[in-house]
Amino acid sequence: MTDTSKTFKLGGEFDVNRIGYGAMRLTGQPGNFGPYPDWQGGLRLLRRAADLGVNFFDSAWAYGPETADQIVGEALEGRSTVIATKGGVDKPEPGKIIIDGSRDTLLRQIDKALINLRRDRIDLFQLHRIDPETPIQTSVAALAEAQQDGRIGHIGLSNVTAEDLDRALGVAPIASIQNRFNMAETGDGDLVDFTAQRDIAFIPYGPLGAHPMRQGSTLDSTEALSWLLRRSSNIIVIPGTTSLAHLEENIRVWDAVSGEKHAPGT
After folding, report:
1. Strand partners, 16
2. CB 242 within 8 A of CB 25
3. Is the pLDDT of residue 1 over 60?
4. Are 217 and 210 in contact (CB under 8 A)?
5. The whole model's pTM is what?
6. Which strands make up the sheet holding 176-178, listed edge to edge?
7. Which of 2, 133, 225, 238 could serve as 22's disulfide partner, Cβ 3.0–4.6 Å?
C-alpha cells in the first residue's frame, strides 16, 4: 500500500498527523527509569515538536514511572495536542515490571495520569499489556467506565493479538493498537490490515528496530519511517528522540514519502 495521507482520524474524532512523538526516551537511563536528567531540554524538545506540527504524543505510566507523563504534561499544557498514555504496567525499579490490569489499578492510574498530564480528559488511554490474572474484557470494561464518565476519550490496546482485539471489541470500541512492528519485524502485518479495514489506528512501537530498554536503533530512520507511512494509511509512527536535530530529521520524512519539499514547521 502506498497511501501518503498525512493525517488519520483517531477514534473518529482527532485528525492526528501520522508522524507523532513517543516519549519513552524522556526518562532516566538505564531501563527508562527515573526522570529525564535534562528536564528543561526535554521541555524544549517537546515544544519544538509541537511547533513543527506534531500533534500526537504517546507516553505511559511505566515510563519513569510517571515521569514521562509529567514532562509531557508540563511541556504541552495549554496546547492543542492529542495526548496518549498507557496503564496496567508499573515499574517500581529498573528492570522490574509489574502487570496489573485490574479495575481498581487502571482507574487509579487514570486519575493520577490526569494530574501528571495536566488534562481534564486523556485523549487516548491504552492498556499497556494484558494481565494474565485479569481477563482483557475486565480491563477494557474498566476503561469503558472511565470513558463513560469523561476521564478518557478513547480506548487503545498494546501488545495484543487479533483474538485479543476481538474480545475487547465485544466490550467497547477500540481506537488504536500499539504493537511492535517495523520493516524488519513484520509479523503483525495481518493485524495492520485488519485494523485498517476497521478505521482503528495502528501505532507501531520500535519503528527503527531499537531495543525498548537501550539507546540506539538498527534501521535507517528515513527509510524505516517512510516504509511504515507507506505501508498503511492507519499507521501513526511515534519515533522517540532526545535530539532536536533528529526530531527535525524525522519530521522531514514526509519529503521522502510524498516528494514534497517543505521547511520544518510548514
Report:
1. 8
2. yes
3. no
4. yes
5. 0.93
6. 21-22, 56-58, 82-87, 122-127, 152-158, 176-178, 201-202
7. 238
